[in-house]
Design goal:
Radius of gyration of chain B: 22 Å
Structural class of chain A: mainly alpha
Order of helices and strands of chain B: HEHEHEHEEHEHEHEHEHEHEEH
Number of helices of chain B: 11
CATH architecture of the largest domain in chain B: 3-Layer(aba) Sandwich
Number of helices of chain A: 14
Largest interface: A-B, 39 and 36 residues
Shape of chain A: globular
Number of strands of chain B: 12
CATH class of the largest domain in chain B: Alpha Beta
Strand order of the largest sheet of chain A: 1-4
Oligomer: heterodimer
Number of domains of chain B: 2
Helix content of chain B: 40-55%
Amino acid sequence: MLQTVGKFIINYPSIIILVFLISLGAFISPVFFTSRNFVNILWSVSVLGIIAVGQTVLLITGNFDMSVAYIVGLSGITTVMLQINGANLITSVAGGLAAGVIIGFLNGLIIIRTNANAFLVTLGTSALVYSINLILTQSKTWYAQIDAFLILGRGKFYGTIHYSVIIFLTMAIFVQIILRRTIFGRSLYIIGHNPKAAKYSGIQVNRLKFGVYLFCGFCAGLAGLVMTARTGSTVANAGVGLEFDSLIVSVLGGTSLFGGKGGTIRTIIGILILGVISNLLILLNIQYEAQQIAKGVVFLTVVCADGILEKKRRSS
Amino acid sequence: MKKNLLFLLFCLAFMALVMPVSAEEGTFDICVVHNSADHPSITAIVQGMNDEAAIFGANVTYFDPAADPQKQASMIEDCIARQADVIVVNCVDPTAAVAPIKKAFEAGIPVLTQNADVAPEGKEFTYAFVGSQSIDQGYAVGKMMVEKFGDKEAKVVIIGGNPGQTDYVNRVAGAEMAWAEANAPYEIISDQPAGWSKDKALTLMTDLLTRFPTGIDMVYAVDDPMAIGVIEAIKAAGYEGEIAVYGTNGNVDACEAIKNGDMAGTALQMSYLVGVYAVRAAYDINQGRLISEEILAPTAPITIDNIDEWSDMCW
């Protein structure tokens, strides 16, 4: 029994830290441990969560997508523009998702064709997408026209939990099952671990990589729709910062930046850590500067714990 | 190989397609370096400059460093190389802008600062500052608050931009100045930044409503988009109509929210006029006339009482 617990701690240090943060919160803030507050925390991280699902899968294959932040803007803008021009709900949503997938397609195509560094290529497309956003919006705020669309961001399932949270959690769990239980999913780990070995063992490395970029573009597109529905409007830089946040939460959850290791359930943990810290710091009304220190300390703790425990995992 | 080359050609063709095109001919050249073009206020400034340039026969070229001080410096040098007649700079970083502005000065090209001024040590290299004072905007908001709450005790939440930014700090200071003048005993119970983002403001306000389930009387979000995010949070948490929300800018949706009673007020920043005044100042410099060192666009307080008079000016 003790051994199982020990093994669990070694494998999932992030869960321990999350449990610690939640207990701490319950102890020091009277309003923290309430269902309403937990619903709010989940709601606030759902957009980032949907992006992070795509980013995590990419990280597992040893790739990055730094363009997700501006894809969030692009998909929202596409949807809103379509609505302004009279498109119905389905068409406008499909348009927004398509915008995300197209950028994913572009990223995948360039990276596979040129073998260029994924980080740099997607930084490049990110600049490109940002300028498209600027041109389309003329730097103005644009408003969603269809009220039913807003349900995606604001609506609650029988008044309990937001639809956006359900979408995020379902995606994370579903993707985790694919990663662990299918040949396709397992191949992604091999690609991340050792692309050469993957190639020689008959895995269509480029094709799978391409597919994952499409998926990541789709996730970012969906996140853009949710964010637009949440705020009811969109701007060119709506998602700025989410590219780094999506990397941070993946790593916090225990997905490796070097590929071959991780999972989307872990990412849920990472996201909850980030969500709980941000929430708790505001509930305690702590100064912004001190908030940054607290965030830095927790982040370093998780990353260091993971590094130290990695040794133990290998030896056991 | 051939395929790759074709692909590269395709990329280049695409780039050529999206490259910006500069303005048509005029009698004198104004080279404008924004701080970040992605803001409605810059769109309004550009509109004002273009409209006025047509009258004064100016040829205006715009550069967007996307809030990067290094890029802004090299863009100012590009303006020098283009031998513009006047350079207009909206400083990203007041101190970082000093060196490139000095270069323009040494090259004999007059510089105007617009919207965000250069640091004091760079003032001697510029002709004038054209813009609005953020302290005035905050003061206008503070006065609206005093009109509504008088000398009753009230608790205020501040939703800020990025920590330490001039506009954020000055707008809050302006509001506090107005309270102090009226001896209004208002207390700031929370002052947190939301990075000028509507979505972040929504999350922040949601958390603050959990922290202070009762007792928030007013919110001052230092930018209208954030004020709208705050209103969304208030609605979602079921506090509609209980909290007075103020913003600054005069964006169309804020004016709309004021009209239908969701928002208490905003300070209208007349960015369009900032553009107009900049072109006029550039024209005067070009004509060899002396100009005032500070050319300020007015700020108008907008509430439900006067929204109908001003709604045309919202941007």
